[in-house]
Predict the structure.
Amino acid sequence: MTKTKKIIAGVALLLAGAGAAVVAWIGPRNVIGMARYDQRTEGRLAVGDAAPDVELLAIGGERREKISGYIGDRPLVLVFGSFT
């Protein structure tokens, strides 16, 4: 191998080692947690099915609102997010 190829291989090896160290330091907690606690299943709703009735906490936090109370002739759109 030429000197340039050895330098490139050394830098690539260092970068791969640094990447592996970052994944080992940060990654496994999230991966193990997701594998252990993620209990999602495939949904049973099909296109055209009515949405299930959901109860949400009102903005003030003092009362609960059922979605079914707002469903009428027009579509209902729920927006979850931050507008700051």
